[in-house]
Fold this protein.
Amino acid sequence: MQIRSLLLFAGLFFSPSLYAFTGSESLSLIDLTDSLYGVLALLIFVIGYIFVLGEEFIHLRKSKPIMVAAGLIWLLTGVAYTLSGDHVTAGLAARQYILEYAELFLFLLAAMTFITTMEERLVFAALRSWLVVQRFSLRKIYWITGLLAFCISPIADNLSTALLMGAVVLAVGNSYHQFVTVGCINIVIAANAGGAFSPFGDITTLMVWQKGLVQFEDFLNLFLPALITWVIPAILMSRVIEAGPPSGETERLHMKKGAITIIFIFLFTIALSVMAHSILHLPPVLGMMTGLGILKLFGFYISKHEPFTQDQGHIRHHHAENLTTHEKSKGDHGDVIRRFNIFKVVERSSWDTLMFFYGVVLCVGGLATLGYLTLLSEWMYTGLGTTTANILVGLASALVDNIPVMFAVLSMEPNMDLQQWLLVTLTAGVGGSLLSVGSAAGIALMGQAQGVYTFMSHLKWSWAILLGYAAGIYTHLYIGNVL
């Protein structure tokens, strides 16, 4: 019975039908935008996204409404295609988008686990503590936090970077509200700009890289334009910083055992992913998951050699369960008291973001299958022109999260050269800085500095951010001889 089941599985796995579909280009999509099902699907997406935009006010996690919307949109898509006499296309298209999400999901899960592990090892807390105890002036802290946000976000994600630097600004800001406000805005702009010239800095850049549209080294062409989008508004805002002594703790916090090794494992993992993609033409996720396996092995070593200590990092009560139960284990399972558990670290990953990303990919995929993205592509890239369309993408990302905007562009598959793909990568990455709700970094800092850094306080400086946005675009077009 077991042999027969194994043969059945092997036959299914190696069946040609499993690999018959490789992309949307092999599908014959039907234009259903003017049908009842198409209109209802678009309405569901709009309603779902209204709930996403209102997350800060209604306190409903953004992944919940968008996941429901994704399911309903695909049900309507399936019904519409079936009634049109096509019983195959909707299913094949859905599998394509689920496969695209799966690859990005595993990549992001590995990256988030590394960042969360470094948080648990107090890597970021030690950096924050060092900055605070140095007693730098408020103006120095303003520039140091901005520069570090710009430099860290290409490796870590812009959300974690913004929260780390935001904690420094709040720790030294004391009662200087103007400093905290412009300091938070400065961090948001710097984190978003820094993430624009690296595949690891933002989900949008990761999507473009994994699609093979821009090679790893080509992202470095965006360094100068991205730097300009941060520096110009940073200079303008620095003029209003109050003069005053910083406040904050005086005790230095140190990293936990193994922190330096984990940093090197992370850097090795990034290098492995880049080489696997650039040289061997393999999916980058293979490198990330291999590095995650190495991290898990090192986590096993830590669990055998670390004494019991109450966690002091960003991840609260990391050891709480095992400290209270004194569970015995051997290796990964019994004979030693559990001190560090990598699976507990994985639990702390931003699952809301990962599930939101699922909802976005499936929603946009459903609307694309109904014909909406073809219609939008003709209006934007054919009617307005490629450069104008890509600039509008950045402005749209200030109102709508840049993830669905960029995924929509990728699904449209516009015919663009490298310079234009770099342009849309830049605009989608930095355009969200125009409004506080335009990026995850801005939304997170509004919660961290509640009542001081607000939507309106950010809006007062949107003109300066827009100047940097325009200057960065001009710089890129000038360097790329697009003008």
In short: Residues 29-98+352-479 form one domain. The CA atoms of residues 193 and 226 lie 5 Å apart. The beta strands are 328-329, 336-337. The chain has two domains: 29-98+352-479, 106-347.
